[in-house]
Amino acid sequence: MTDHQTLSLVLNMIRGGTAVTRPALSRLTGLGRTIITQRVDQAIRAGLVTEGETAPSTGGRPSRTLRIASGRGVVLGALFGASQLHVAVTDLDGTVLADRRMTWDIGGGPEASLETLREISGELLTPQLHERLWSVCAGVPGPVDFTRGTPVRPPIMAGWHAFPLRERLEAHYDVPAWVDNDANLMALGVWSRTRSVAGDNILLVKASTGIGLGLISQGGLHRGARGSAGDLGHTIVAEESRLRCRCGKFGCLEALAGGWALSRDARAAALSGRSPFLAERLEGTPESLTVTDVVEGCRAGDPVSTELITRSGELVGAQLATLVSVFNPSTVYLTGLLAQAGEAFAGPVAEAVARRSLPLATDELVISEAGLDRQEGVIGAATLAVDELTRPDMLGRWLPRGDPRGGRSASIGPLASGGGSSSYPR
């Protein structure tokens, strides 16, 4: 193994809590104590690792625990949903330092979306934080070519196909950037916080305006061969349905159970007089109702809103049951606006999975909310960014310079030399 490979291994074992002392690193990697000491000392000199308290002695000289120096750099994370935008500045372990949420229509297109992101990040990144910006990571609600950092024919993102999102982020912020599906980042974020209890095989269902899914398999994010893994919302649930999905097909799960479908059905219920609660909400917003109106109606005890949420849970659970039998996860996390309805959504999901999946796949299965105060996406963005920054090849590009600023995520060739701000040649 090269020096950068061993350093990457050491850093990621410390980050994951697999080994947090020099003896443990040596024992679990099979590397000699001299090599481990050299790599740990290198990481400490680079400001990537700090020493903590003395670990319990197992005989011989006691060792100090090691942890990532999370305050050295910060990550800008942006989660574009179908109807919301969450932007946050986090430290290197995903702790949120500043964030902002806002209503945003992804259908407004990439240029308007980027301009909004620039405005918000300009407010969040104080001069002190901006000086420590190491990376940007963005999530979008559609398929992504992760290698290129571009959305690929996203069903609900008009104008985004092949848009060079990563390239534009790197050009503006002058740091390495990565782009992934929003549900993937959410799954990575919640797994990074719950791995010890959730296991290394989890599913995360994001049920909001649209429906997405992130999948962690054997401790790794599963994107599939081309990056389209997890597109749960566009699986077919009703072959004969004449309800057209926003992707153009008929009978998709999203067309019957997604938040935008519930908004459609809620408006019909309000106009027909079936729900006084929704009718009152519609008076204030005559153009439409939102999934938030339906969730709040459910919480307020409105029978129609509860019926819509429950039916959505049943449909999502029925599709999820097949995945549970095929993939056999230890944990399924529910997140998104519909999950905020609580048991009215989660209960039908769990009941459908238990009824339709194989007993061996469900007898120890845990289905629960993510429980991270809706921060799992930006935590996942930080996790992904640091995962990528600590790859051996990336370490080789930026570590000699001291930090990743002025760099790119997919470079070819040696680092540029000379005065001023250097960049990694493409």
Short description:
The protein is α/β, with parallel strands linked by helices and 426 residues long. The protein is 42% helix and 18% strand.
Reconstruct the topology from this structure.
Elements: H1 3-16, H2 22-29, H3 33-45, E1 49-54, E2 64-68, E3 74-80, E4 84-91, E5 96-103, H4 110-124, H5 127-130, E6 133-140, E7 144-145, E8 150-151, H6 165-173, E9 177-181, H7 182-198, E10 202-207, E11 211-217, E12 220-221, H8 253-257, H9 259-272, H10 276-284, H11 291-299, H12 303-327, E13 331-335, H13 343-356, H14 359-362, E14 366-369, H15 376-389, H16 392-398
Parallel strand pairs: 3-6, 6-9, 10-13, 13-14
Antiparallel strand pairs: 1-2, 3-4, 4-5, 7-8, 10-11, 11-12
InterPro entries: ATPase_NBD (IPR043129), ROK (IPR000600), WH-like_DNA-bd_sf (IPR036388), WH_DNA-bd_sf (IPR036390)
Protein name: ROK family protein
Region (Disordered): 396-426
